[in-house]
Design brief:
Shape: extended
Helix content: 55-70%
Structural class: alpha+beta
Largest sheet: 5 strands, antiparallel
Strand content: 5-15%
Number of strands: 15
């Protein structure tokens, strides 16, 4: 269980004309990870793959424009879709059919969107005209008068309020009449009349201060502003009705094409997957060779599926993994509730194929540490029941369900801790089954540090197991083992001798020094004795890593004191809640009600806020204090070849 799923590297050889049937068999099997052929030249599918990516983008744009979203969070009951059935004779022809259908829908959607944009542009233009006309009407300015002037030039504009004073000063030296008035949004209306000779000067001044001139609309410049304003309002009302009708058409189109677009997008993705798989296959004129990985436990089932689709027209044989090849992909194998915690492991990264999977240990330590930080019977019960309820209500996505189940398990950990501490809803409700941390702070602090010591030590042990699994026995016994011995002795002697330096110098310091020297020199000396290369490299590596280990061990161990700190914070927040409630309860008439509300909402706040903080710090202790001792998390995901089947069903009619 601590190791990832064991993989077998398999080669399947079939007739080239049966390649699609073989892929269909692998899709039906659902556990075959296809490896790309390294010597394969790009075939004629690359252009089709590129077009399918473009088609997916076109479909996604159409869905976005129509406001169509695939179901993301499903509550109570999964939405049922009528799957669209596609009968495929040739993948390339199928790809062209899907692309053509997608382009037809896109043209229809883009056409109605173009109409909407044109109407919106016209409405924006009319609103701008209305704004201008309102201002002209407000100041009783008739544009028809300006057309009759010969010697005088008139400027009407808006300008920022902060530039009004500077503009007044600039215009005061010119033969001009000007008027300013604030009209809102930090803008001011400006009217300037000057002689034709000074018109260019005034225009330059206005440009300097970023004045925005009014452009009088041609269709209203021959009318009084009041009449033109009525005309614009009627036009706005007309275009608003047109826009409303177009929006209704878009909504109707959205309902009409929703399932069709979802099925087409899924079909496009399936085509892309199929064509990529075919490009990953090594082909000759008559044969096709599919190389990939399958879980060893499912090898017999793979043979059955291939026989079902291909009869006896295939050969299946195992391949040896060479040293220069990439390691097999990683598939986790965890039973029961342990599987829920894979989401936490994946947050950091998948383990490599020859690396210990920490998920089973996380399934124990995560709720344990969370419970100790959040030790409250009442609040733990809320998290437990709330997490269970949400995991049943939410049907998809599966990650959300896993998260809420983890929350429920952590809540159960808090319930156990609450029973041990005798605390519920921040109050002593019954005699503790173990001890009260608030009356035994030092003892609980020591206990928290012991939890840290055990987890860090387990990290060193897992590091040693990783080396053994990878057959790096020198590293296991000259790198990991000295770490375990040094850290174990340091903790033991610290507990026995405390800070009595005379006792330390009597013997313990020498044992620890010996372990430390072996940590620095063990591997380089073994390599020197075995006459292996890399002595200097190994020596430098051990000096660097050993020094970092000494500096980090104390801080890593002390970091577990946050178990006590967050438990105290939990208690302090609830204490403040009850104190405030007690003060408010003394208010006449409504005091009791207000006090009760403060208690209720205070507890809700503490459950939500403190629960989030505790979850984050529990993650931190695992990721930074524990994972750093043994875990790389650089595995390649196991991605078996299979089609998406939520909205579509693809059936091969015959061999392609």
């Amino acid at each position: 269980m601590l190791l990832t799923e064991r993989m077998a590297k398999i080669t399947i050889v079939c007739l080239r004309e049966d390649l699609d049937l073989a892929l269909n068999a692998l899709d039906d099997f659902g556990l075959f990870h296809i490896e790309e052929a390294r010597t394969q030249e790009h075939g004629n599918h690359y252009d089709a793959i590129r077009k399918m990516k473009e088609t997916s983008t076109i479909l996604e744009d159409a869905m976005k424009n129509l406001g169509i979203k695939a179901p993301s969070v499903t509550l109570f009951k999964r939405e049922k879709f009528v799957k669209r059935r596609f009968h495929v004779e040739d993948w390339l022809r199928f790809a062209e059919d899907i692309r053509k259908e997608a382009l037809d829908i896109a043209d229809e959607v883009n056409g109605i969107l173009k109409s909407l944009k044109e109407v919106d542009a016209k409405i924006a233009e009319l609103r701008n005209e209305m704004r201008i006309l309102k201002i002209l009407n407000l100041f009783n300015i008739d544009p028809r008068v300006f057309t009759k002037l010969r010697l005088i030039r008139v400027f009407i504009a808006t300008v920022s309020v902060r530039h009004v004073l500077s503009l007044s000063r600039a215009l005061s030296h010119l033969p001009a009449v000007y008027y300013f008035r604030e009209i809102g949004h930090e803008r001011a209306f400006m009217f300037v009349a000057t002689t034709g000779r000074e018109a260019q000067t005034v225009e330059r001044i206005l440009e300097t201060y970023d004045a925005e001139p009014f452009i009088i609309p041609k269709d209203v410049e021959e009318q009084k502003p009041s009449k033109a304003l009525l005309l614009v309002k009627r036009q706005l009302k007309k275009y608003a009705t047109v826009r409303s009708n177009i929006v209704k058409q878009i909504e109707k189109l959205s309902r009409k094409h929703r399932e069709r677009l979802l099925s087409l997008r899924e079909a496009a993705r399936n085509i892309e997957s199929a064509l990529k798989a075919k490009e990953s296959v090594l082909r000759t004129k008559k044969l096709a060779q599919i190389v990939g990985y399958v879980p060893q436990s499912s090898l017999h089932e793979l043979k059955k599926r291939l026989k079902k689709f291909l009869g006896d027209r295939f050969i299946l044989f195992p391949m040896d993994q060479t040293l220069d090849e990439d390691p097999p992909p990683t598939a986790l194998r965890n039973p029961g509730f342990i599987k829920y915690f894979e989401i936490i492991t994946r947050l950091y990264g998948l383990p490599s194929y020859d690396e210990v999977d920490p998920t089973p240990i996380i399934a124990v330590t995560f709720p344990l540490i969370f419970g100790l930080m959040f030790g409250d019977l009442g609040h733990g019960l809320i998290l437990f029941l709330g997490g269970l309820l949400l995991s049943f209500i939410i049907k998809s996505p599966e990650e959300w369900r896993a998260y809420f189940r983890i929350l429920a398990i952590c809540g159960f950990g808090a319930i156990i801790a609450g029973l041990l501490f005798g605390e519920a809803f921040g109050k002593r409700m019954f005699p503790p089954l173990w001890m009260d941390p608030f009356e035994n702070v030092l003892s609980f602090l020591i206990f928290s540090l012991i939890i840290g010591v055990l987890q860090i030590t387990s990290g060193f042990i897992l590091d040693m197991i990783n080396f053994i699994v990878k057959r790096r026995y020198i590293d296991a016994f000259t790198v990991s083992l000295p770490k375990i011995v040094f850290y174990g002795m340091a903790v033991y002697f610290l507990m026995e001798c405390g800070l009595d330096f005379d006792l330390w110098l009597s013997a313990p310091i020498f044992y620890m020094t010996a372990a430390l020297i072996f940590l620095f020199l063990g591997k380089p000396l073994v390599m020197l004795v075995l006459e292996k290369k890399g002595f200097l490299h190994a020596f430098g590596e051990r000096i660097f890593e050993g020094s970092e280990l000494i500096l980090s061990l104390l801080s890593n161990t002390m970091s577990y004191s946050r178990i006590l700190a967050l438990l105290m914070a939990h208690w302090a927040l609830l204490t403040v809640t009850y104190v405030i409630s007690g003060l408010v309860s003394s208010v006449p008439v409504v005091g009791g009600i207000l006090g009760a509300l403060i208690i209720v909402f205070g507890n809700i706040f503490v459950v939500a806020f403190e629960g989030l903080i505790v979850f984050i710090h529990t993650l931190r202790l695992h990721f930074y204090e524990w994972f750093s001792k043994f875990y790389e998390g650089a595995g390649t995901p196991f991605q078996p070849f299979r089609f998406q089947r939520e909205f579509t069903e693809i059936i091969l009619r015959h061999k392609c």
